Amino acid sequence: AILSSIATFALSNSLDRRSARFTEERDAITRDLGALDGHVKSFETLQLGRGALLLVLNGSQADMQYKYLLDRLFRLNAKQAVRRMAAIVHPQDWQGRMAPYDALVDQGYSDAGTIQSIQAMENAMVLEAGERLTALQLRHNIVTGRIAKIESLKAQITAVLASLTSALTIVIFFVTTNRTKPAPPPPATVPEKRQRPASGRRRAADGR
């Protein structure tokens, strides 16, 4: 029973350490998934708003200078979301990747070529963010499955060792009981009746 308890503790401790590592990884993936998905949605919302207002300005025959100003205003608002996407997708060199984009957005542009360059960078970042979301979700599913398998294995091992402990306890109990069982007492002897001497029997007969 003691050895079984030690084995159960050792195996459970080992499985718990593995489960803790996977749980920590799963939590980090969950944070990145939520953050990246939120930044992508925020950027796409700003993109839709910018496109809608530009359509309105095109319909009203507004001056091109106002269109460029509105375009830059929306891209400045969206820049923070793009930077955060880059930080998650490229954590090692995101600042270097963002430098050309920041330089174009921050300057006061007024030509279609600059807008096309900015749009191409944004589209590339959104595409990379989508691929990263897919990879993160796949890894999340794998890690979650491994955690579930570890917990299932731990439960099975605990149940098997508990059954073995019960069986060993019963066997040890019977073996110990048989060894310490007292020997049965010897059968009682019936005392023999002493016969009277012949002379005594005669005197008894004469007395009658």
State the distance separating the first and last CA atoms: 81 Å
Secondary-structure class: mainly alpha
Q: Fraction of residues in helices?
A: over 70%
Number of strands: 0
Strand residue percentage = under 5%
- Rounded Rg: 45 Å
Number of helices: 5
Task: Pick out the low-confidence regions.
Answer: none
The largest pleated sheet is described as: none
What is the residue-mean pLDDT, rounded to a whole number?
80
| Shape annotation | rod-shaped
List SSEs in N-to-C order: HHHHH
Task: Describe the structure using short key phrases.
208 residues, mainly alpha, 0% strand, rod-shaped
Quick structural overview:
By secondary structure, this protein is an all-alpha fold.
Characterise the protein shown here:
There is one protein chain. The chain has 208 residues and is mainly alpha-helical. 84% of the residues lie in helices and 0% in strands. The protein is rod-shaped and about 120 Å long. The protein starts with a helix and ends with a helix. The mean pLDDT is 80.
Ordered list of secondary-structure elements with their pairings:
Elements lengths: L1 H58 L4 H26 L4 H13 L5 H68 L18 H10 L1
Helix pairs in contact: 1-2, 1-4, 2-3, 2-4
